[in-house]
Design brief:
Layout (H helix, E strand, L loop, with lengths): L2 E5 L6 E6 L2 E8 L4 H12 L5 E4 L3 H8 L9 H6 L3 H21 L5 H12 L4 E3 L4 H11 L5 H13 L6 H7 L4 H12 L1 H22 L7 E7 L3 H9 L7 H7 L12 H19 L1 H25 L4 H14 L7 H12 L4 H5 L1 H4 L3 H6 L1 H34 L1
Parallel strand pairs: 3-6, 4-5, 4-6
Antiparallel strand pairs: 1-2, 2-3
Helix pairs in contact: 1-5, 4-7, 4-20, 6-10, 8-9, 9-10, 10-11, 10-12, 13-14, 13-20, 14-15, 14-20, 15-16, 16-20
Length: 406
């Protein structure tokens, strides 16, 4: 039997739900509010609850528990495993969070930090119930059509670095949602699918995690600390039907939707076109074939090298990108960005201080170029982007040359 009641006092909005043999107190907090942090402390100190659940994923929880976690990054492995873009996105989100803290005087997530500290102080079980931020970002990325993804990425970084001061409107958004929702709010307003991925899925996910972590109702009174924007959705999901074993549904929400399969073949088709162009060019005229190869090297290598130059890469890294990109583009399993980043790490190995100050440095635009860690990530991203553009531009150029001789 489920019952619920709302509490709209001067404190944060609350809903009390009874699910099976557990009473859940859902506290809607403002992520940028000292009052919310104080209220969380007071509720836990009251002794009414035997467990606390928080709207954090394991990665964000670890970051709050260990602010120096970034200093332990193995940058080469991050790039090798294809996580460079994700790390860069998290740093970009962190820079927005840092600027909000500077403008408001309160670090976003202070109420989560308060919940962690008080739960530890009173030896209460702490349930970390949100979906991993990396999976959410990937699902957001997959939720939009492929032709809009570049704009989404550029919009993310542009919005985070377009101005030094955070507007009052942006801080207001954070009072109900979190960093992710505030960042993508404009996109989500225009995309029902993105809203579904960013907000509704997480409401469902958190309800399932509560059901999983308290499946046998071992906790009788649970305080659930969430952003006010999730209060309605989470309460509806908790009031609804929850499976006895939520593992299967959680696995679905943790998976990545299949992309368009035909897109996987596009790079190989372009490689086939380019190589065919070289063969046909040399078969017709050695000079024409040679010119095609030169054009390919200049276009692909030049644009990848330009990306490294913009990223502030070492001169020898720029040269490495110029040489590597025309070759790696003919083998889609190896990226020019990986080769360029490996070269940058070789020529400019990050120091301990770079890792220690990474979060602070990336809070402003100039810091991304100053810090060797973030600069290496920029080298990877911009070298990859330059080579990708060069592949398409060079491919169409060769196609144009072929149409003139065939």
């Amino acid at each position: 039997m489920n019952t619920s009641q709302s509490n709209e006092s001067s404190s944060g909005p609350r809903k009390i739900l009874h699910k099976y043999n557990t009473e859940y107190t859902l506290l809607g907090t403002a992520h940028v509010s000292k009052a919310s942090a104080d209220e969380v402390r007071q509720l836990i100190q009251s002794g009414e609850f035997d467990a606390v659940a928080i709207e954090l994923c394991p990665a964000r929880f670890a970051s709050l528990k260990d602010p120096d976690a970034l200093a332990k990054l193995d940058l080469f492995q991050v790039i090798k495993q294809g996580k460079a873009g994700m790390v860069a996105a998290n740093l970009a989100l962190g820079s927005f969070q840092q600027r909000v803290a500077e403008e408001s005087g309160i670090a976003p997530g202070a109420e989560m930090q308060a919940a962690i500290e008080e739960a530890d102080k009173y030896n209460l079980p702490l349930l970390v119930i949100d979906r991993d931020v990396g999976i959410t970002l990937k699902r957001v990325y997959r939720s939009v059509p492929w032709w809009q993804r570049a704009g989404l990425i550029m919009g993310l970084f542009t919005s985070l670095f377009s101005k030094e001061k955070v507007s009052a409107a942006e801080i207001e958004k954070l009072k109900e949602g979190d960093i992710l929702e505030a960042t993508f709010s404009e996109f989500a307003a225009e995309s029902a699918q993105m809203y579904q991925t960013l907000v509704a899925e997480r409401d469902h996910y958190m309800a399932l995690r509560l059901a999983q972590d308290n499946g046998d109702s071992q906790y009788k009174k649970v305080l659930v600390v969430i952003g006010a924007g999730h209060l309605k959705g989470l309460s509806e999901n908790l009031n609804g039907h929850l499976p006895e074993n939520p593992t299967e549904q959680l696995a679905i929400l943790n998976s990545l939707p299949d992309g368009n399969k035909w897109l996987k073949f596009v790079p190989w088709l372009i490689v086939a076109l380019i190589l065919s162009g070289f063969v046909i060019g040399f078969s017709r005229d050695t000079g024409l074939g040679t010119q095609m190869v030169i054009d390919w090297v200049l276009i692909n290598g030049g644009l990848s090298a330009l990306g490294v130059l913009i990223a502030g890469g070492h001169p020898l890294t720029i040269l490495t990108a110029f040489v590597a990109a025309p070759l790696t583009s003919l083998n889609p399993t190896i990226g020019a960005g990986f080769v360029a980043a490996a070269a940058e790490l070789y020529f400019r190995k990050p120091k301990v201080a770079d890792f220690s100050t990474l979060r602070q440095d990336t809070a402003n635009l100039k810091g991304w170029w100053k810090n060797r860690v973030s600069r290496t990530l920029l080298v990877f991203i911009l070298a990859t982007l330059g080579s990708a553009i060069g592949t398409y531009v060079g491919g169409f150029h060769i196609y144009d040359q072929l149409t003139k001789i065939l």
